[in-house]
Design brief:
single chain, alpha+beta, Alpha-Beta Plaits, four-stranded antiparallel beta sheet, 5 helices, 4 strands, globular
Length: 149
């Protein structure tokens, strides 16, 4: 038996950052995503966001690569969203995502950050938030590809 704790803070957005996740139905989407995570033998600690992006704090099963996890999550949720009349404007997810690793001591801080997404985005745009995450995590931004779909 191997023991792991692989906490990822994942941020992904709708295509072109369009506001296609209505607040009135976001919990429906979050519940569906929770099911995907559970089927991947992973643990979802928190999910939240606003109409154009989602944050996850998840412990991904050690046999699953982050890129495979996100490919499946986007694919399954996209198919579900396209059939759901509560999300009539949804086209697809953006191609890219951001994933950052954290230690167990940071878990509550990230949970609180995700809980406060709605109030947080009253003062900061998604682009500003995303840019800050990347630079704080030592990722050099290539402007040719930044938030391009």
């Amino acid at each position: 038996m191997s023991y792991t704790c692989l906490l990822y803070h994942i941020v992904f957005r709708t295509k072109n950052s369009r506001p296609t996740i209505p607040e009135a139905h976001e919990k429906e989407l979050y519940a569906y995503i929770m099911g995907i995570v559970k089927n991947k033998k992973s643990t979802l600690y928190r999910i939240g966001g606003i109409e154009n992006h989602i944050h996850l704090l998840v412990d991904i099963h050690p046999t699953i690569a982050l890129s495979d996890f996100m490919k499946d999550l986007k694919e399954y949720s996209s198919k579900w969203l396209s059939k759901n009349p509560n999300f009539p404007d949804f086209e697809s997810w953006a191609v890219s995502f951001a994933g950052f690793t954290y230690g167990l001591n940071d878990k509550q801080m990230i949970i609180n950050y995700i809980i406060n997404q709605k109030s947080h985005h009253k003062t900061i745009s998604f682009e500003e938030e995303y840019r800050r995450f990347l630079t704080e995590n030592g990722i050099n931004i290539d402007e040719r590809y930044f938030l391009k779909d």
